[in-house]
Amino acid sequence: MEHPLTRKEVLTTMLVAAAATAFPSTLAGQARTPGDEITLDDLKSMEKIAGISFSDEERKRVMAEVRSARNGFGTVRKQPIEPTTEPSTTFHPLGGGSIAGSRVHARNSDPHVDRPTDSDAIAFLSVRELSHLVRTQKLSSMELTQIYLGRLKRYGDKLLSVVNLTEELALSQAAAADAEIKSGKYRGPLHGIPYGIKDLFSTKGIPTTWGAGPYEHQVFDYDATVVEKLQEAGAILLAKLSCGSLAQGDVWFKGTTKNPWNPKQGSSGSSAGSASSTAAGLLGFSIGTETYGSITSPSVRCRVTGFRPTYGRVSRFGAMGLSYTMDKVGPICREVEDCALVFAAICGRDPRDLASVDRSFEYPHHINFKKLKVGWVGAESSMAADPVVKVLLNAGASVKAVRFTPIPDGINQILDVEAGSAFDAFTRGEEIHGLKNSSWPETFRASRYVPAVEYVQAQRARTLLMHKFEKELGDLDILVGNGVLGATLGHCNYCGHPQVALPFGDDGNGNSVARSLVGRLYRDDELIAVAKYVQDQFDFHRRRPDLSKI
After folding, report:
1. Active-site entry in 198, 229, 328, 532
2. Contact 531, 299 (CB under 8 A)
3. Among this protein's residues, is 294 annotated catalytic?
4. pLDDT, tens digit, 9 for 90 and up, residues 328-375
5. Given 270, 274, 438, 512, which residue is catalytic?
């Protein structure tokens, strides 16, 4: 009778088997050949990459399990795993999960706006203002849709912000919206308002390219949850907007999406077309996604208002998966209140996305500024002179400078490994060679060299990071800082916090300036309310780019 393995030997077995899931091409890439046998030297090579070391005797004891594990890899790969299939483990930020009795309510304030006399002025109105004009039938959804379609045709290709127009669908939806409104069936503030969506959301019968050449003709037979919810709200789908190739950067298979304020610059971030099109007045609002800056960064560059909600507040079903535990969906608009109206329409629990939750969202949301505690993310010497800090101080809030413990380097592999998993079949196939101007192929392949144990350890370290970040936040309600908040952007994305990016003009050299506000988990309505108060003290969101330069 064999003696059972000791605890140390069990751990050894687990470590080496886990490492074998990720390393050289003999294990993870190309098909096996008859002489492709795993040797002790192979295990030594894997150990070197993983930063561990076992004796030859220990390696011999686990060899059979390592070889058996490789056989299992092929079995899993043969299973048809759809893009919407996520791991059975689900990420929730601290205190996550649905809460019974949650209520979502948002109403737009009375804008007291008259219908402008020219179409350009109409195109740059906020959703709040457009909603008022459409509801009171001073502007029909059909007329508004045609204005935006004309602008999309005129400027979309110049900005490289549009992948596909959905003109026929838009005109049909606009006609239906006008008929319903005239009959007294008003669905709410988005009824009859045209929008565009990042081209990584599935739209039934309409190409969804993910910004990548190999997927240029990809068509799904279902709509993403966000598309369904916006249709229920009566919004009008105008266009699929450019997305950086497989949700990275602003370069897609036709080129670089431009910043309307400075066409020499790309629009930044993978929600490139959403930010660019919104800034150029090509639609009422847009939908983007963020894994690590893809809403906030292009919003800053294109001088629009971007809102990344708390992780899990908006269903990702039907959106291209990049990182199962980091992907988030949010609106990009011209002003903060627009973000509130759109968010209220798309948020909520969806059984097709196990990470999605029901939480309350009330807008307008009352803020007692005398009790508001704000953290300034930046040098203390620059705090007192900052215009946003001045506004908050004048409103009665208390403000102090804050610093946070940096994120451990190893945590950053979470995104790479999850992306490698999402595109595993693509990486092992021939189509990956058709992916141009992208560093994803190297990232996907490199993810194979991260041991499974190290990925799990990184997730455990992420848990520690979340607790550390909450402790360092203390009793602060809001964070404020320049641009996307620098390194704190990483804390917020790994921990799941909501963030609003506000345009603040430029630096005089054509470079955009912005401020970001971060809220506490699930207190999205409080964040929106503070951000709106700040934005209303300035006029940066009212300014328009000179489109004659593109």
Report:
1. 198
2. no
3. yes
4. 999 999 999 999 999 999 999 999 999 999 999 999 999 999 999 999
5. 270
